[in-house]
Amino acid sequence: MKLIKKIVSGNEAIAIGAYKGNAKFASGYPGTPSSEILDYFKEYDGVQAQWASNEKAGYEAALGASFAGVRSFATMKHVGLNVAADPLMTSAYTGINAGCVIVCADDPGMHSSQNEQDNRYYAKFAKIPLIEPSDSFEAIGFMQYAFIVSERFDLPVLFRSTTRISHSLGIVQYDPRTLDNEKELKLDKNFRKYVMIPSNAIIKHKDLLEKLDKLKQFSNETPINIIEPGKSNVGIITNGISYNYAKEIMPDAHFFKVGFSYPMPIEKIKNFAKELNRVIVIEELEPYMEEELKVAGLKVEGKKYFPQDGEFNLDIVEEGLHKAGFIKKDKSSVVFEDIELPKRPPALCPGCPHRPIFDILHSHRNVYITGDIGCYTLGSLPPLSAMHTTICMGASLSVGIGASKVEKNEKVVSVIGDSTFFHTGIQSLVDAYVNKADMTMIILDNRVTAMTGGQPDPSSGTNLFNETFTPVNIAKLAKAIGIERVFEVDQYDYEATKKILDREIETPGLSVIVALRPCVLMPKKIKDTPLVVTDKCIGCKRCLRIACPSIDFKNNAAIIDESTCTGCEVCLKVCPVEGAIVIKEGKQI
Amino acid sequence: MNIESVLFVGVGGDGIITASNVVAEAFMLAGLDVKKSEIHGMSQRGGSVSASVRFGEKVYSPTDKLGTVKFMLATEKIEALRWIKYLNRDSVVVVNDRIVPIINQTIDESSIDESMKTVDTKVFIQRNFLDDAKKLGNIKIANTVMLGVLSKLIPVEEKFFIKAIENIVPEKIRGINLKAFEYGKGIE
Ligand SMILES: Cc1ncc(C[n+]2csc(CCOP(=O)(O)OP(=O)(O)O)c2C)c(N)n1
Ligand code: SF4
Ligand code: SF4
To answer: Which range of residues forms the domain containing residue B39?
Structure first.
């Protein structure tokens, strides 16, 4: 069989590994940096894959497939595991049938996240095996291995990536054939194993503790906890991406590379450390390994020299090793010092349907705007500045309910995207109705999960496999709940949208406004005839307040970049001067 | 062979990812080890984007160390300046002579140009590659023209770059990209 050699991302490697590991079902919810895994996986023959509406539903579906005898996995970003934590904790008790893996990608440095929690603690919390690759090549092998470990110990396995693993590429070489399952499996009906009523769960918890003892031994034996002997008299214990930085800076040290990190390979590390003068732990984020080792009585150092926040890189690891006295650092290699430069923050796209909503909300004085997570979170940045909270997905509506109950002076408006609404917003819509909240809920139904790259959601009308269905209609759903004041608006009709928003914000009680204009980028790019600024422009800068990337200001007048303007006409609608912004000639109306 | 690196910097939508994929592929075809990192979380919304391609006999880290980047391809001047800490006097810089506006900010173009002058690396090529691309009939191929320029300075045979373009670039625009690469090689 010919080997395939190519350059792949960590995420593609995880999909390859899952396929080679004979996984036949996958389910997840998008979230940077994990989102591409399912897209790669779904391309393989004979597999099924789906987007779930949130991570809990995603992981539970994977569990269901496992119980039915098929190897399966779930994908999510780190905070997604908070949502899936409920099934995670109890599935450690039930165990699995066919191999079941939770692929979860942490985001040290918060390239695209609201926090940088270290999910390794979830493995310890749930008492399940934790596997961490350090690059694409390892991701293929480790992912296959994860299914074997899962079946051997009858436990779900947590497979942890990070942004730098998922979104870095490396050369891989692999045999494209798949492994067979260790044994033939079919749907497993077993009351004592799968029905976690207390009498069964009490027994299963004891089982789990027994498994944990076996896992502790296994961690010392597994080939993915590797000793790489060096020449110096110091040792480095490290995992994941940190291994690469340390290895490049200090290739001569003795290395203990931890690929199986819960439970930690305590005995093997004790042996490793025995002959060494000093041993240091290099790990991003929390001192997880350091603490495990210290509790086991090992004399190791770690966070004393390395930061507990942010992402590592070669410079940070070099600095830490220098502070620890492991290496001598030449004087700074920096030749060109930083120059003060304007930051280039991301912005809503030209033509983005979210823009008019925030421009309208910006004009309201006494509103408290609870926001959520998606492209529309950019509405919190100046000059739109129309969002006062962002916590986690779904929180806009429920935070809004609480605030509306106690706040007497400001009207609460909450803003949520469609994918976020289906994720964890629906419940709060019901709550607001039941508890008679006095608030305005705006659901930005752009028909897609735009922020994470345009994955379909329940209002897209297509699924991951491109099968079509009648989209879930959010306005009808709200009415079916019993809510009376439900309105649909098209944001490109700026005046009509403004009229409804203004009126509902003034009206006491609960109202729901569904904003229906689709995203301009996804699923396909929309570009209409661009607009141009004429010499009637008085330079008032009103159009700059909508934060459209196509509008710049030069020589006391606005100027529109025709190559990027989508022709949404929102700037024209807010411009106070008739004829200052016009549609470029040639457009048929 | 030491580990060396090509750092690509620019603005979301500039085609940084494709350009860096082509270079990574060329190194692999030349028999070298390669790692590449890219950050594309918010790139679609016009923020800063970067990708580094590191190559050598054996590469560990996918990202660079300050002051050690040998080659930089910048599609915009402010973004080039944002990353100068990674360069040194031996570096080779190819930068597109353009400034992409930033929302809600007035950019002092002359001070940006002043700063560009302080980047006195061994090779520094600043040129309006969009004009070149326009001349060739497609403004989207400016990056490939820049790659052509850079390819003469990177220690990898040209045939690997050409093969890499054939492997990575979609068929519809392959021809024009090969032409742009050829054209770039001709630029002094
Ligand atoms: C629990 C959790 N899962 C996933 C994410 C990643 N994520 C951020 S925003 C978002 C969806 C945004 O979609 P939508 O609400 O439709 O807004 P849009 O981006 O389309 O405007 C996702 C999946 C997250 N932050 N938290
Ligand atoms: S991707 Fe779509 S939703 Fe996101 S900013 Fe652009 S237009 Fe708006
Ligand atoms: S019409 Fe105006 S607001 Fe819309 S994309 Fe063009 S410049 Fe931006």
So the answer is: 4-185
